[in-house]
Amino acid sequence: MIQLEGVSFSYAAQGPTVQNISFHIGKGEFAAILGANGAGKTTTVKLIDGLILPTAGRVLLNGKDTRETRVSQRARQVGFLFQNPDRQICKNTVREEILFGLKTVRGEEGDEALNARADAILADFGFSGDEEPYALSRGQRQRVALASILAVEPEVLILDEPTTGLDYRECCHIMDRIRRMNEEQGVTVVMVCHDMEVVLDYARRALVMAGGELKADGPVREIFRDRAVMEAGAILPPQMIDLSLRLGAGFEQADTPEAMARAVRDRRESRQ
Amino acid sequence: MRELFQYVPGDSLIHRLNPITKLLLTVAICAAAFVTDSLIFLVLLLLIDLLIGFVAGVPKKTLSILKGLLKIAAFLFLLQALLTRRGQPVFWIVTDQGLLTAGKVVLRLMVVCMPLTLVLAVTRISDLANALVQVLHVPYKYAFTLTTTIRFIPQFLEEMGDIMEAQTARGVEFDKARGVKKLGMILPLCAPLLISSVRRADSTAVAAEARGFHLRTAQSGYKRYPFRMIDGIAALLCVLLIVFAAII
Lengths: 272, 248
Description:
CATH topology of the largest domain in chain A: Rossmann fold
Strand content of chain A: 15-25%
Helix content of chain B: over 70%
Number of strands of chain B: 2
Largest sheet of chain B: 2 strands, antiparallel
Oligomer: heterodimer
Shape of chain B: flat
Structural class of chain B: mainly alpha
Distance between the termini of chain A: 53 Å
Structural class of chain A: alpha/beta
Strand content of chain B: under 5%
Radius of gyration of chain A: 20 Å
Strand order of the largest sheet of chain A: 6-7-8-3-9-10
CATH class of the largest domain in chain A: Alpha Beta
Radius of gyration of chain B: 21 Å
Distance between the termini of chain B: 36 Å
Shape of chain A: globular
Largest sheet of chain A: 6 strands, mixed
Number of domains of chain A: 2
């Protein structure tokens, strides 16, 4: 589905932002790209969508080099949720905003079908459609941006720090909706995220970047348990995993409150 | 385009000039361009612009500005040459007077546009604001407004680029359209840009208030901007430039 082969990229007048990275993300995967600020995460997801083109190597989307097609042509295939929803919103009502994306990408379906799609997504996200996007809170604007992308039903969903500035409730709303799409419709999700609790709860695979290089790639729980990788990526593991690592033997798998309670109970019983 | 207004650090002669002298230099070149009616003098002023850029150590930026201006100049030249009816025909409907007027118009445009951009490239915005307050006694409120406006230009350009990138990812064909069609696609995006600009201005105002904006006086800046010999020579050259422009 997504294939990066020896990809490097550098912005003008700067050193390389991404250096010789290669990985493959298959259909239906939920991958998180982790790393400190300036590690090259956003550059990597922009490379995936072809918003920027590699200076070396190649990026393949469904086997097709991103150099061969335009970004706008891929909009039906790839949905990109930017960190700042205000860059994306350009219409006066939520309904118009959702219809704008639909008409751009699925215009051939006709007004009736598009209105039906818009109605379904509005109901799903709990909007009446008449709300003015700019009068909504940041979290709600982020939901409008996400709704307009999901309405198009892309095969790949790229999320650049989707939970930044959101309260826990809004964060769960958005992430639960994304997980449903991933699990029920097989949508491939690639997410850049600084919130390790969110990554642990939702992603199944983690790619750790540092200094523009890919330092580690594997299942989320394995990555979080690797102290060396965490240090290389300047990442702190989620609290529960950190606690289980500190507690040591007997707590290796205690990465949820329930598992931790079970491990503590087992430890007590073994002492008695 | 985004890099056009960014400060380029350095220790050149132009960098070391007092910010007010640099402004004076800009005003003098602009004034000379409007006072003179000589094509040769306008060419000379353009060469002075280029010289400033090269002495300031920003030759790439200078040539990039010139390149950008040449595109507008070519369009203006054509328009002016075709619309002027005075003088002897040279070919088709173009007259010698038309060519001369067109030449002066485009040279004047280039001469006037270059110095301010170059001066901003070699002057820290904060130095400009402080010098305006300390030397010219401009109220800080107005100096801050001026410098904030200048500072926001590259940010707006960047913001517009980001908005266009986001819309392209949604399927809007910014990566295909050219010319008037692209302009038509950009216009609806002015609304999000305006809204984000107002938000940015509002948050800047709140941040400034929180940091005691109204407590600031002319003496609040720790840096001083004395006039040195080099500034005196530059000021004298500015006066001479305007006098020559008036005479020639």
